[in-house]
Specification:
The chain is an alpha+beta fold. 29% of the residues lie in helices and 30% in strands. Helix 1 packs across helix 4 and helix 9 packs across helix 10.
Length: 567
């Protein structure tokens, strides 16, 4: 046997711990390296709605998704239904992608779990995008699209023309199924196509063929079977189907066609005949008898109720032959203004009057008489009664009782507005002196010598009107008459309220007229009229009181009128 010693086993035992420590350090380093390599990254094989995001950091993946998927919310989709189309933008309809929630499905983020690290290296799959929906916006968008795509059903109908009734057949409708359409839009949001066919539902008409048949047999055919007669106070008014067919219609109500008549047109059709058996109430008024203002009692009237005409007509249309008659009920009509009311207004004595005399030809003089007669007898109520000359007299045309009248004679203006001008000036002066409120008058552009300076009032139905209001506590009666060519009188009756005095200023800023030298057969010479300014002060005193209550001033400017010489 050899005497050499055995190897020292103690050294081997010391190496083993160090090997273990080394392995721990090695694996720990690999573990940390794996953590650092996989931290905050999406598993390599991951796609979100087919968009590859594997291996990207969470921020990079979010950017890619926002770029690739959310852009879909901004594209325009074409919606189709019932052979019609419209369009919308998904984003405007409340459809969007939640990028953060979509990535969270893939597990992107830091983790010390070995399974998470392994999943990064070997895991990953395709995940759907997380879609968010604003239900209110989507519903509103679908409703808006439906209004353009729906084919509403056509109700059955009955029409009337040429004295006959005609049926019209109904038709089914096709409307968008809105809940299903919302689901279809949500499903198509991330799809490849840009066209979406929306589901539809059949919608029945509210008025069916049977409803039309019933309406024809129960109303329409009888309505056109013959004339209808209205009676009132022994008068008879007969209307034929070809006169009233355009006034009739049948409208759906709760699935039933009900008759309707245009009441205004029907009453207008029968009123002329019924008016012969009725009379309009006449308000009480005032007229001058001798030298006194006398109250004239009103007269009751008799009329008819338009509603009774309409309802009775619809009832008579359902009948046949001689039974198609409606007796119209009469209604007694009392005057709106009674004699007692007029008496309380205190119209008893003249309070102002004025006379104008102007050169006029025969035609203008006839117009002046006619206009004065139209104004005569007008009563203005206390505090609010207003007079509008154009409204009272009307257009100066033959249809209104006027004739054509010359405005100029031998180059001089002798009247205006077909002869009504003198009446306007007389009315204005009487109202002005009675203390009534001037609501608008138009002085002549050039002063006419036959009118009071500063207190003339032009008249023209189109351009110039005369208006004033009775602001006193008493009524006012207007008395107007023309007793000679070109001469017109206006007298106002009431109870005195104001004592009015007038003062006229001297003429100021006088402008001399120019001279026009003309020649030719048609030349008419005339004298010039200077232009100037003048002011009239109206002083108000309460009747019987010396103290001044208030004043107002009326300023007028006239322009010059050139003279004309003829050679």
């Amino acid at each position: 046997m050899s005497d050499a010693p055995y190897p020292d086993r103690t050294n081997d035992r010391r190496v083993i711990p160090w090997l273990l420590v080394g392995l721990v350090v090695l694996f720990g380093g690999l573990y940390v390296a794996a953590y650092l390599a996989t931290s905050d990254r999406v598993p390599r094989n991951t796609t979100i709605a087919t968009v590859p995001v594997g291996g990207l950091t969470r921020e990079a993946a979010q950017a890619r998704l926002a770029d690739r998927i959310e852009a879909l919310a901004g594209r325009r989709l074409t919606l189709e239904a019932n052979d019609s189309s419209t369009s919308l933008v998904p984003g405007d309809a409340g459809l969007h992608v939640d990028v953060v929630a979509s990535l969270a499905q893939a597990g992107a983020g830091r983790s010390w779990k070995l399974s998470r690290m392994w999943d990064y290296l070997a895991g990953g799959r395709d995940y759907p995008a997380v879609v968010t929906v604003d239900d209110a916006a989507l519903t509103k968008a679908v409703q808006a699209a439906s209004t353009k795509l729906d084919q509403a059903p056509v109700d059955g109908a009955v029409t009337f023309s040429d004295g006959e009734a005609f049926p019209a057949d109904p038709a089914e409708g096709s409307v968008v199924d809105q809940p299903a359409a919302a689901r279809a839009l949500r499903a198509a949001f991330l799809g490849d196509g840009l066209h979406v066919t929306l589901p539809t539902l059949t919608k029945d008409p509210a008025v069916t063929s049977r409803d039309v048949s019933v309406a024809m047999s129960r109303f329409a055919n009888p309505a056109m079977s013959g004339p209808v007669t209205f009676t009132l106070g022994g008068r008879r008014v007969v209307v034929r189907p070809d006169q009233y067919d355009a006034m009739l219609s049948m409208v759906p109500r709760n699935g039933v066609l009900v008759p309707r008549v245009n009441a205004a047109k029907l009453v207008a059709l029968v009123r002329p005949g019924l008016a012969k058996a009725s009379r309009t109430a006449v308000d009480a008024g005032v007229r001058v008898v001798g030298n006194q203002a006398v109250v004239v009692p009103g007269k009751p009237g008799r009329t008819f109720d338009p509603h009774d005409v309409t309802t009775g007509f619809l009832t008579a249309l359902r009948k046949h032959g001689a039974a198609r008659v409606h007796a119209v009920r009469t209604i007694d009509q009392q005057p709106a203004v009674t004699a007692q009311k007029v008496s309380s207004w205190g119209i008893s004595t003249p309070v102002a009057e004025f006379t104008v005399t102007a050169p006029q030809g025969p035609a203008a003089a006839a117009n002046l008489r006619h206009a004065a007669a139209l104004v005569d007898g007008t009563v203005l109520r206390p505090r609010t009664g207003a007079l509008d000359l154009n409204a009272l007299v009307g257009a100066r045309v033959p249809a209104n009782g006027f004739v054509d009248a010359a405005t100029f004679v031998d180059g001089a203006q002798v009247d205006d507005d077909a002869g009504v001008g003198p009446l306007a000036t007389a009315l204005f002066n009487a109202a002005y002196r009675a203390g009534l409120r001037d609501d608008g008058h138009t002085p002549h552009a050039t002063y006419l010598a036959h009118y009071p300076v500063g207190l003339d009032a032009g008249s023209d139905y189109r351009l110039a009107d005369l208006r004033f209001t009775n602001t006193t506590p008493h009524g006012v009666l207007v008395q107007a008459w023309s007793d000679a060519p070109g001469r017109v009188h206006v007298r106002l009756w009431s109870t005195p309220t104001w004592d009015v005095s007038l003062s006229t200023s001297p003429r100021r800023n006088v402008v001399a007229p120019g001279v026009q030298h003309l020649s030719g057969v048609g030349c008419v010479a005339r004298a010039g009229v200077p232009g100037f300014e003048v002011a009239t002060t109206r002083t108000f005193r309460k009747h019987g009181v010396r103290a001044i209550d208030h004043r107002d001033v009326l300023r007028v400017r006239y322009i010059p009128l050139d003279a004309v010489t003829c050679s």
